[in-house]
Structure formats: structure tokens, C-alpha cells
Give the backbone structure.
Amino acid sequence: MIVGRLWEGGSGAVAGGSRVVAGGSRVVAGGSRVVAGGSRVVRGGSRVLAGGSVCFRTQLQLFAGLGPFLDSFGLERRYSS
């Protein structure tokens, strides 16, 4: 939900991150590919779900490191709740 709202905020860096999370969602739905690294292909339901979790954790780390960047756009206060 945070990712979606940040996407609407128009931040280029976060937009790229949200594409990674979207890739994780496609992994869970399609059950064949992990897009986070751009090269790994996994098979099997549990491993695919784990790949999606990695994508999401990567996005959270990206979000946590963007405080000053978001603040420069006045977005940190809006999206950090």
C-alpha cells in the first residue's frame, strides 16, 4: 500500500522499486520467475513465495534509505505514517 501511494507521488527512484515489488507479485501469481535480480528463475510454490518476500524486503530497505530524498519533495511527512 505504501508503494502504491509513493508511485502516485511520482518519485522516479521509488517507481523503480515498486516495479520490483510488482515483479514479486507476478512471481506469486505466475509461479515461474523472480524479477528482483533480473536473472534468477525459480520453480516450486514455496520458493516462488520466498522470492516475492525478498522483493518486498528490498523495497522496504529502499524506502528506509530514501528519507532525505523524500523530504526534499515534501513526501516524507506524507508517507511515513
Q: What stands out?
A: The first helix runs from residue 2 to 9. The CA atoms of residues 59 and 65 lie 10 Å apart. The helical segments are 2-9, 12-30, 45-64, 67-72, 76-79. The chain has one domain: 18-79.
